[in-house]
Amino acid sequence: MNPTGLAARLARAKEAAVFVLPLLAFLLVLYGMLAWTFYTSFADWEGTAPNYTFAGLKWYRFMVGLDRFWVDLGNNLRWLILGVAPTVVLALFIAYLLEIGAIKGIEAYLRTLVLYPAAMSFVVTGTIWSWMYQPDRGVLNTLLRAVGLDALTSGYTTDPGTATYWLILIFVWQYLGLAVLILQASFRSVELQEMVESAMLDGASRLRILFAVLIPNIRGGILVVVSLLLIAALKVFDIVYVVTFGGPGYATDVLALFQFIATYQQHLVALGSGLAMVIFALAFIIIIPYTVYALQRWFE
Amino acid sequence: MSNGATKAPVSQIVVGVVIAALVAGVAGYWAGTQRGGGMAKAEERKLEIFHWWTAGGEREAADAMFKALKAKYPDIQLVENPVAGGGGVSHRVVLQARLSANLPPDTWQTLGGAELKSYVDGGYLVPLDSLYTEIKYSDAIPKPLANAVTIGGHPYVVPLNMHIQNILYYNKKLFDELGLKPPTTFDELLAAAKAIKAARPKMSPLGLGTKEKWEAAFVLDSLLLELGGPEYYVKLYKGEVDVATDPIFKAALDRLNTLRPFTYQFHAGLTWDESCGLVVSGDSAMVIMGTWAIGYFKSRGWNPGVDFGAVTFPQKPDRILLFHPDTYGLAKGAPHPKATLDWLKVVASPDLQVPTDVTQGGLFARIDIDPGQFPDPIRQELQNYVRSNPGKLILDQHGSIAPFSFTQAYWDVAAAFTAKPDVAGTVKGVNGLFTTYKVQEGAAWYQWP
């Protein structure tokens, strides 16, 4: 054997280890825990002491028998649809406005302003918004009353019928900046810029350029934004925890919050694990289109 | 430094870290196996304690506790592991992890009742029969309090206080001005609410905050207690009442609905302290809240007996105090059992209970302490009442007769009812909870009277 070759190979192995070991640790922690949670959801762990006796679908049956579970699932779907669709549409328009320099001079400031909420934690923005929503003294109702629009005042998050929508509005506000940033970046590819230029030479209107040239050609960017937003909306916990704690009653409850309460308040650990698996399954469904697209691009 | 010079050290560091981690793991495992075997050696004078008293007012009460410990046993080194976050939510997350991993702290804060039972069921606590005999604690505390910490015939924790749930606080100056008597029955409450509404149309006479959900169950409890009496109350939470056909439960919901027009409308957004704040700010005139509200009112500059008054609500058919205790026990496999037993003796002593309870807001667990130790007339009167009527105590929502899994879900339904008054749906929902969470089985341990 060539000694220098061996030394080189060893050095390369060491180098590889530097990168592979952290990855392995990461995968082990993530998927190890996932497997553990998966098993626990089929165990009979009820109470403070671990109980890994296999119980089959017992706790899944229990779960689907709970009214709260279905309320949560409905709310999670509301979050997925209403938290994502309006954000993407709004972000497209704002990104385009910024890109074509419609608002000359203040563009850079505007971009910072739009992005700023994304830099804050949900705990902070949730608290701020819950102050604004406060029905007696909050800024929203106070302003409405000041301009004589008393009919438009509402209970916001204290009204069980509409509370979830007001929570979703916070999410849209907070993630808009991030969506704008990603979409604006995807407008910037060289080929796309050339296509826009030639379309302009042909005399296409700006709106037509957006719909006929830009949007069809930034599918990748849109898919990234949609996937990111879907996952963020799916795992929503903090906004609900801070602003309504799932209330009134459990009208704004979501799966992630119920998972927390079931596991640590009710000590129904198997139920909590089952709820976590439902969230995981939903995330999986959301991720599939993105993965398929990414793989297609890979093999192209 | 050139790139080439840094490359090798990086990989060496990684290898070093991996080796160090392995060594540490093996050493840790070895230390873990030695833990039980090291009994021959004298036990370290150390005490690891978990508690959730971190908020303003409560932190001072925790300091008072530990001062009492230091005074009695200056050699015990205290390792505190307070987990911030009121009500013990985050505390339970961390504690649960430690317990499941078989690494218990020596002692931790738990409420007497269902929460305690969950730890006993898990096999995490050591029975304290000999300690109770040694310090004659059963004679020093009310019987219902002893029952709340006794499971399967053994006391498992030492209570240091009692919080009372069913208290109605009122704006004393306003009541005097309007010539109103503090209400002690539902009819009186409704009459007072109507009178206040007539005199102050902008007010919501009854303050309420249901963000944490249990507040709604408090109000419902008071209504149930008046309609059904103490035996009914206990039977209900022991799962021995058929709620679906029960006229009392339905009547209590109807009464809650009757109070709706006089209750603060946006209660879903408020926590318990914010609901007491409604009384201070003049938005409301009354609120039903536990003894811990006294501390809140005082922190807002309101003096008991001057700015606000308090009465037990209801007082018919009987004046029952719904209560729960804060307690400490001895962990099974505690690293420092001797120091922990010393600590528990301090917990049981007036030396700890007087400064701690006066600061934190509950009543003394011991009934041989002079009620005059309390600075406020409200607790003096309550402690006196407990002293002469120790049998009139029943576990409250936080102490919980029913298993905690049920109680959590029950609070949600009660809070939902205050937001959307659907009597039939709520009766059906609550009835389902009793079977879903197997309340009869889970609450069988509770004995009252």
Give the uncertain stretches of chain A in residue-range form. Answer: none
**CATH-defined fold name of the largest domain in chain B:** D-Maltodextrin-Binding Protein, domain 2
CATH architecture term of the largest domain in chain B: 3-Layer(aba) Sandwich
Question: What is the CATH superfamily label of chain A?
Answer: MetI-like
For the record, give the distance between the C-alpha atoms at the N and C termini of chain B, rounded to a whole number.
79 Å
What is the beta-strand fraction of chain A?
under 5%
- Look at the structure and name the CATH superfamily of the largest domain in chain B: Periplasmic binding protein-like II
Helix content of chain B: 40-55%
Transmembrane segments (chain A): 16-39, 77-98, 110-132, 165-187, 207-233, 239-261, 268-292
Membrane topology (chain A): Multi-pass membrane protein
GO cellular component, one term (chain A): plasma membrane
Subcellular location (chain A): Cell membrane
Detailed description of the structure:
The complex is a heterodimer of chains A (300) and B (449). Chain A is an all-alpha fold. Chain A has one domain: Orthogonal Bundle (MetI-like fold). Helix content of chain A is 73%, strand content 0%. In chain A, helix 2 packs across helix 13, helix 8 packs antiparallel against helix 9 and helix 10 packs antiparallel against helix 13. The longest helix of chain A is centred in the N-terminal third of the chain and has 38 residues. Chain A starts with a helix and ends with a helix. The model of chain A has no long low-confidence stretch (mean pLDDT 89). Chain B has 449 residues and is of the alpha/beta class. Chain B folds into 2 domains: 168 residues, Periplasmic binding protein-like II (D-Maltodextrin-Binding Protein, domain 2); 194 residues, Periplasmic binding protein-like II (D-Maltodextrin-Binding Protein, domain 2, 3-Layer(aba) Sandwich). Chain B contains 19 helices and 15 strands. A 5-stranded mixed sheet of chain B has the order 2-1-3-13-6, sandwiched between helices. In chain B, helix 2 runs antiparallel to helix 15 and helix 17 runs antiparallel to helix 18. Chain B is globular and about 75 Å long. Chain A: This is Sugar ABC transporter permease.
